[in-house]
Amino acid sequence: MKIITQNLGKKFSKEWIFRNLNYEFLSGESYTFIGANGSGKSTLLQVLSGFTPHSEGLINYQNLQKDITIDDFYKHLVVAAPYLELIEDFTLTEIVEFHIKFKPFIHQHSIKDFIDFIELPNAKNKELKFFSSGMKQRVKLGLAFWSDCEIMMLDEPTSNLDVNATNWYLRNVQEYSKERLLFICSNQPTEYEFCRNVLNIQDYK
User: Fold this and answer.
1) Homologous superfamily of the 2-204 domain (CATH)
2) What is the mean pLDDT of residues 65-92?
């Protein structure tokens, strides 16, 4: 999987969030976007994901040397971010059942396997509206780790996580990003210290 950008830029009103991004993002590599709060890291991630349109330049998605249309790109992508909401009237079991209809799990893992993996077995029949913010974040990360997708995008991955859950993230993020194309938006070095490619969004202003 490959994402190629050419003179990519995004602006809101008259303000450019980023410009002149020329880059090849490749499977098997990890990329972190850093920068001050409000600098546009999340916007860049959303543009690369296809969720937000760009203002100038080009994005080309390729898999096995074949172009992927923007309408099909979502099939190859999974995102975990604080601003993406879960369906709160669903129980944990129901949200997993719903998710795997669209993004099956790797290795044919079962729903029980998943709930054990995210270490929330006692909450399997609990509605998500009664989950803490940290529990919801663990669900989002777990779904990202286990979805059978070539690209994984994580925005502020340890947001709302306590020490134990942060350690759980650090144990699993490298394991489940092997051979994938991994993006992380973060200002916390511990979240991305293993990443080989770090891009400061200030360099594209």
Assistant:
1) P-loop containing nucleotide triphosphate hydrolases (3.40.50.300)
2) 93
